[in-house]
């Protein structure tokens, strides 16, 4: 499959919903936490491969705000896994910068400290940026961005007309958690589910979607290549007609 990829059309930004860890463990008669541990190994492999392919941003949906409703022991295990999985090797070996998006105030202080330490230590890495969506939901992000815009407007003493002029997509995007990176061209979801699950709803307006049945712990480099090949076989029109796009590509 690697031979079929156009290396000049590798997506700059790939977002992944890493689904199926718990089910992968269940079918093996293991605790769900065992699946999450196995999923970390997949993160390492896919991060390395994305770096090798020239992907510039890899955003991983790790823990949603809805996941706080899971059993307490599973949440605790996931938080512990965050602490132990943020190793320097995966970032320094691949020259990867680490960033995190989400409602981080809800995380245990020890986890917050580890996240900040990893971001600080990898800040100068420039081969790729891995972004972890942790305690994240898109509805929370959009509402939070709206609050920030309203607060700024009120503090500036703007009139209604002035506020209305500032309510543009460009200004709104500056208040999103993802303001430091481009929107994803490709969104991958593993595990067989066919939904977005409150993930990057604003940002994926024109992303290509790819769903596969493979549980995340079994997702490998070949599966990644298949997703990218599917992306490359599509025509990205952004509202234009097929004829218009073909004319522009001449």
TrEMBL record:
Molecular function terms from GO: ditrans,polycis-polyprenyl diphosphate synthase [(2E,6E)-farnesyl diphosphate specific] activity; magnesium ion binding
Gene3D superfamilies in UniProt: Decaprenyl diphosphate synthase-like
GO biological process annotation, one example: polyprenol biosynthetic process
Superkingdom as given in the UniProt entry: Bacteria
Keywords associated with the record: Magnesium, Metal-binding, Transferase
Active-site residues per Swiss-Prot or TrEMBL entry: 19, 67
Cofactor binding notes: Binds 2 magnesium ions per subunit.
Known EC number: 2.5.1.-
Pfam families in the record: Prenyltransf
Residues annotated as binding Mg(2+): 19, 208
Cofactor: Mg(2+)
UniProt family annotation: Belongs to the UPP synthase family.
Xref: HAMAP family: ISPT
NCBIfam families assigned to the protein according to its UniProt record, in alphabetical order: PRK14830.1 (NF011405), PRK14838.1 (NF011411), uppS (TIGR00055)
Protein function: Catalyzes the condensation of isopentenyl diphosphate (IPP) with allylic pyrophosphates generating different type of terpenoids.
Name of the protein: Isoprenyl transferase
Organism, as annotated: Segatella copri DSM 18205
Name of the encoding gene: uppS
